[in-house]
């Protein structure tokens, strides 16, 4: 079960990195850092409103599930 959640997290991470690259954002190590950079960038209101919040919420949910299963 845990492996399924980790695979899902990896798919979300790759999606976020791919979308970010389309808008000129480099993907630093650590997905949370990339999300912070995108959300802090004043030039990206469309980028942020269109998908970052939704993917970040899904990613947080998956990470919570991984933490619960890992215990």
TrEMBL record:
Recorded superkingdom: Bacteria
Name of the protein described by the UniProt record: Uncharacterized protein
Classification lineage: Bacteria, Pseudomonadati, Pseudomonadota, Alphaproteobacteria, Hyphomicrobiales
């Amino acid at each position: 079960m845990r492996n399924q959640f980790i695979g899902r997290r990896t798919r979300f991470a790759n999606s976020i990195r791919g979308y970010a690259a389309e808008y000129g954002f480099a993907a630093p190590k650590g997905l949370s850092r990339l999300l912070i950079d995108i959300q802090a960038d004043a030039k990206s209101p469309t980028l942020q409103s269109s998908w970052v919040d939704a993917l970040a919420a899904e990613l947080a949910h998956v990470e919570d599930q991984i933490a619960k299963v890992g215990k």
